[in-house]
């Protein structure tokens, strides 16, 4: 993991620089890194896109993005002027050599002017279909030959299935060495996701009970209130299983289930994650129906406002069978987790925006208190909140005030905002700095990626080969299709409601079933 030091001199070349990702995420993140003095004095940003644009118009567009999306709000004039002076722009056809030759010449000029060989970061902020060709063109332009300083950053999706993921890796590694490839998943840059390792391995209180003897099951939920918005065409090819479960949710599962690392070197952490994925119990084709369910949102309401169903969204087929909700039950077959179920669910147009991990503990072995004393009863649990408000809750039973002995679940709460009184960096700030420092801890290695695809491949194949006659539907603004509730109910459990809604009011800790 990275030391707390400033980045070395670096040039960030962004392909697809005219798109939303650069405008909303990348340049606001780089600007904040600049303000916080994480960037070297010698840095530059080169935007590359097919769109003809002057460098002045490019800088003005980026400023609009920073004003809207930076966690600091609108730019400070003097600081922006200094930052923007390091931004240049090239337009050209990605299928030809001219624009790559121009980039190579610009990089050589910067090296000469600075008197130092800066790190060269090639960020692929482009549609997935262009990644292979861009990598090949970078190779032809000899921009990958500097093995210690040339790095390529690739956004998800990393393939469409196991076969395409392997094909993509073959194309990338034909040009770059594995250590030069940074497969970015912004979820891994979130503060609370990174804090999982600190919570587990820096505290002697939790790790001794982090196993099958004490934990009944684990729930990982990523719920979104938004629909597909302007990504209907992309989502039709992806769906919730590919878009969220294969990467975000399974990366979180790895952090929850991994063994203690010997050190915090990048490959040691990634080795432990791969160990978890390799231990995930394979899903037999004839068991997919019992271990994985899907659904699609129909018309409904979010925050009292009517919303369209998925099939009415722009770019979506009227008879689409693409899932907007997916829930999967998994097991990690090793000494620590044998027979402990992990329930993963994600969906669009759900009632709350929330990403949470609930570690639910076994009940006490003997209940000393009569039922009359139990006002409410639920197992102890630890809830790790990734968003919208980062923090950790510990739920336990306590005596209700008064002369009578009555027990009620309460929680102890840790909040990043309340404890540290500083704004957490955005995920892209953390991950871009990691790339500049050459720290690959939070980035997926090829073997990790392929193993994750291999886990969900049986589900994808089963869903491909048997298109549903009646795809389970759920009304927008509810917790998913009824089949999701049945998936966990067959084990005598229920889905847990998020502990915090967007309104900021903590919930009472009751559970909700999908479809209710």
Q: What is the radius of gyration computed over CA atoms, rounded to a whole number of angstroms?
A: 24 Å
- What is the topology, as strand order, of the major beta sheet? 16-15-14-13-7-12-11-8-17
CATH class of the largest domain: Alpha Beta
Q: What does the average pLDDT come to?
A: 89
Tell me what portion of residues adopts beta-strand conformation: 15-25%
Tell me the CATH superfamily of the largest domain.
Answer: Dihydrodipicolinate Reductase, domain 2
DSSP helix fraction: 25-40%
Could you list the spans in which at least 5 consecutive residues all have pLDDT below 50? 501-516
What is the third-level CATH name, the topology of the largest domain? Dihydrodipicolinate Reductase, domain 2
Tally of structural domains: 2
Shape: globular
Work out the number of β strands.
Answer: 17
Q: What CATH architecture label of the largest domain applies?
A: 2-Layer Sandwich
Structural class: alpha/beta
Query: What is the straight-line distance between the termini?
Result: 43 Å
| Sheet having the most strands | 9 strands, mixed
